[in-house]
Amino acid sequence: MSDTRRRVKVYTLNEDRQWDDRGTGHVSSTYVERLKGISLLVRAESDGSLLLESKINPNTAYQKQQDTLIVWSEAENYDLALSFQEKAGCDEIWEKICQVQGKDPSLEITQDPIDESEEERFEEMPETSHLVELPACELARLEEIADLVTSVLSSPIRREKLALALISEGYIKKLLQLFRTCEDLENREGLHHLYEIVRGVLFLNKATLFEVMFSDDCIMDVVGCLEYDPALVQPKRHREFLTKTAKFKEVIPIRDSELRQKIHQTYRVQYIQDIILPTPSVFEENFLSTLTSFIFFNKVEIVSMLQEDEKFLTEVFAQLTDEATEDAKRRELVNFFKEFCAFSQTLQPQNRDAFFKTLANLGILPALEIIMGMDDLQVRAAATDIFSYLVEFSPSMVREFVMQEPQQADDDDVLLINLVIKQMICDSDPELGGAVQLMGLLRTLIDPENMLAPTNKTEKTEFLSFFYKYCMHVLTAPLLANTAEERKDSLLRSRLSLYFPNISIYSFSPAPSDNFQTAQLLSLILELLTFCVEHHTYHIKNYIMNKDLLRRVLVLMNSKHTFLALCALRFMRRIIGLKDEYYNRYIIKGNLFEPVINALLDNGTRYNLLNSAIIELFEFIKVEDIKSLIAHIVDNFYKALESIEYVQTFKGLKGRYEQEKARQSRSLTRYRREARSLEDDEEMWFNDEEDEDDADAGVEKRVEEDFPESYGKFMGAKKVKDSEDKENLPKRTPSGSFKFTFSHSAGTTNGSSSTSSKPASSASPAAPNGSSAKVASLPAAPMVKAGLVGLVDYPDDEDEEDEEEDDEEEELSPRKRPRLGS
């Protein structure tokens, strides 16, 4: 069998009866030795890993839906689906499945798995007996039909046979005609039987039946049958709600009749699943999996059809951004886009990317900028939801847009991010539900972790510079206003009113943190600032220093709301956790531990979260041995803290402090002792030099008296040697350091001359006594300066010189024996 590959998306049905995307790959049908049969294999297109390996079991029921879907169940509570990109690929794999199972590819369903007893019972039956024999569709036999439908639900093979029978005989439409008759006759008993029949047919979980039942001419009668639940005294009025209460609003007329029909069908089927049908029991939870799939893939098709209609989307955006559009109309347009984006979450990743790129090209972000500045709360809430979809899809796309805004607008207040911040601050919800959502979006936008795209390496620096220049002052305005000194209150609050004209719901009094809603808002702002401390570097550091922000934040340690005081403490803890001496000097200079220690002392003996958090802060300083902070705390606050003995933290800080002082004291003493020792050593060295000079003078005097001729020759050679050594000594520079200079002979600068100097140096080890050394050293001085090396030995003089050298060696000190120039 040939190996055919087609592009597919693999889905699995989770516990919540929702389809989970397992990935995109290519499907093939091939023989797998391990599974001993033809199997479906899906390999990921990204890395070639195996997404699916499923043997085509002859008894597994496969369903083909909507031309591009194949759905089946591998085991109890484990449903799988393959969504094909092309219909041709779906048809080809379907033919392979039918070929293995020996089925007709023209059918859209194969046989369900059956147990052994049923297999034995039916394997001998002729083909003509495969269908269930249905009673005549008459009023008198409704009870018999209801019993039949209910009885087959426990058997997969009988469900399959009943479904085939219902389809082949056009039984569904006959039943719905009986429903209309019963309703006209007000036959309540017959209507109750029809409720059981229709509910049982839905639980057959067959897509082919759904396509008949949910067609335009049948679906309302199906809803009507489900109104007559025998457990209810009075029937529900679902049809009245669907036809009169629920109105289909076309913000822009949809010209495609097929698309319009698909939207109506999806809404009504969703209503049946969510509202009409009771929650399935444990034994029925798998009965409606195909219904869930039907809705899911309908939504995919709707989004795809709308996305392909460029004229429709262009017209929607034109009206959305048109200043002449009425508020009610704009509200409908925004709600349409909100639902449109929600539907898009069902798309495959590559289709979802194309969808959002289409919206971006059409101008969704400039439109949101206009909408989020409106006074209508419903419109702003819907716009926030749309914005969250866009941020989740591509934070970089949003950042790129907002960084271009200052070039197009002179007013910072109309920037999209500032509008988001203002909406967060002005949230009228007492629980600040919208503010929490917006804070999460801001956090995503300023998170450096998603700014690491290699295609744009400067995104992080550019965006953070933009944010701190144009937006940070808007974010911190409520915090600064609530922690301002009295003499600055009026100025800051007047500035705040410029940024937030609708902020009258807050009371910025001298003790603003007593207002619960304001305290909640400040805690959100502090959470965002704490995130900045952790993930931003010099941007937030410069801002904290310039605004003296930590001092302002620590004012909130006095709040009666413990959660707000903890937020302020957490902000300081993150700063100290960086172990940055720049921050440490700022804290010491501002004496910023004082409000923390006051809060600890005011808390008294209460053992609560505030107490533990403050002690953990000091414990961290002790464990990490941050010396500058330890010294500051002990020097300034230890008297107030030494009475706290239920933890050893503060005694430990004192111990660290004393250890450091002792270490510094030892270092200072060692330095002084080493300095005195150096002076003594220098003095002893100079004394030794004087003694050596006196000894040398005595020796030279005796040598001159005993060997007057040899002494003259020796002193001549010694002077030449001393002059050479003096040239090679390091010379002290004006800065006090030593500069080394080397005197090289001409012979050492080229290869030929250096080789000629070798006999001179080789003569010394060959001499049995000092005579050869003396003779060699005497002409060395003029030859080094002249750059020529010459050596002449006179054999007649050797004996005389040997005697002289022997006498010399007896008198000269070994330490003062002349050394070879080489």
Automatic annotation (TrEMBL):
Residues 654-681 form a coiled coil. PANTHER family: ATP SYNTHASE GAMMA-RELATED, SERINE_THREONINE-PROTEIN PHOSPHATASE 4 REGULATORY SUBUNIT 3B. GO terms for molecular function: protein phosphatase activator activity. Residues 5-101 form the PP4R3 EVH1-like domain. Residues 719-730 have a biased composition (Basic and acidic residues). The keyword Ligase does not apply. GO terms for cellular component: nucleoplasm; protein phosphatase 4 complex. Residues 144-659 form the Serine/threonine-protein phosphatase 4 regulatory subunit 3-like central domain. The lineage of its organism: Eukaryota, Metazoa, Chordata, Craniata, Vertebrata. It comes from the Eukaryota. Residues 682-697, 794-811 have a biased composition (Acidic residues). Keywords: Coiled coil. Regulatory subunit of serine/threonine-protein phosphatase 4. Residues 734-744 have a biased composition (Polar residues). Residues 682-822 are annotated as: Disordered. Belongs to the SMEK family. One of its GO terms (biological process) is DNA damage response. This is Serine/threonine-protein phosphatase 4 regulatory subunit 3. Residues 745-774 have a biased composition (Low complexity).
